[in-house]
UniProtKB/TrEMBL annotation:
Signal peptide: 1-23
Cross-referenced SMART domains: OmpH (SM00935)
InterPro entries with a match to the protein in the record: Chaperone_Skp (IPR005632), Skp_dom_sf (IPR024930)
GO cellular component: cytosol
GO BP annotations, alphabetical order: protein stabilization
Gene Ontology MF: a single term: unfolded protein binding
SUPFAM superfamilies: OmpH-like
Family: Belongs to the Skp family.
Keywords, alphabetical: Coiled coil, Signal
One Pfam family this sequence matches: OmpH
Coiled coil (UniProt feature): 71-116, 150-177
Identification of the protein by name: Periplasmic chaperone for outer membrane proteins Skp
Length: 238
């Protein structure tokens, strides 16, 4: 039951028009996904989610550990039953041959035997057959008991998965669409502000650049620094 928790990921689509650049245009580049992930508001919210998920993991760890031990025990028991069943199938072949041999011999000798001798030999046959049948029934009983244990185990696992899913929903709700949109709007506004102040006529995604002679045209970090300046201290985790 590994990977029971997954960090909530935030995705956004930022439409940045890519037009044919003219010689007099000044082009800059910015990574909106990087800016979103590192926006103080999102950093703060993701930290809260991480903390909540860690607490949840610690809360349910004992139950998960117990289920892991129970699963290992059930696997060992299942393997033992399978091994015993295999041995019993081999024994069945031997017993069937033995019984057939005794029955054939009794049928052949019966005309010359007294009634009590026939009954005695018949008892030997019946006892051997019953002894094997008792083994079969004992194995069937073990299999039935194992099935009940396995079913109870699956119910426990399902219950834990339900509880974990509920906690995951709580974690997902900790970052609302409104929070994400607020960060996206802030990023877009800051991009526009810096682009205007620096004279950029186009701001494109870094992936749109096949070659950039001047690394300064990537204004991602400059945008992030400006965002941090005007973001309230609380949102920066101070």
């Amino acid at each position: 039951m590994k990977n029971l928790f997954k960090t909530a990921t935030i995705t956004t689509v930022m439409a940045l028009s890519i037009n044919v650049a003219h010689a007099d245009e000044k082009i800059g580049f910015a990574d909106p996904n990087y800016l979103l992930q590192n926006h103080p508001l999102m950093v703060e919210l993701n930290a809260k989610v991480d903390s909540f998920m860690q607490e949840t993991k610690e809360k349910f760890q004992p139950e998960e550990n117990e289920l892991t031990k129970e699963e290992e025990s059930l696997i060992a028991e299942r393997d033992k039953i399978d091994a015993d069943a295999s041995k019993l199938r081999e024994e069945q072949t031997s017993v069937e041959k033995s019984l057939k041999k005794k029955v054939d011999a009794l049928e052949k000798d019966a005309p010359r035997l007294r009634s009590k001798d026939i009954q005695a030999r018949q008892k030997v046959i019946n006892d051997e057959s019953k002894a094997f049948q008792d083994k079969v029934e004992a194995l069937q009983k073990r299999e039935a008991e194992f099935s009940k244990k396995a079913e109870a185990f699956q119910i426990k696992v399902s219950d834990l998965q339900t509880k974990l899913a509920e906690e995951q929903e709580k974690a997902n709700a900790m970052i609302s669409r409104e929070d994400q949109q607020k960060a996206v709007d802030d990023i877009n506004n800051t991009i526009k502000s810096i682009a205007d102040s620096k004279g950029y006529t186009l701001v494109l995604l870094p992936s749109a650049a096949l070659y950039a002679k001047n690394e300064s045209v990537d204004i991602t970090e400059e945008i992030l620094a400006e965002i941090k300046k005007h973001t309230p201290a609380k949102a920066q985790g101070k």
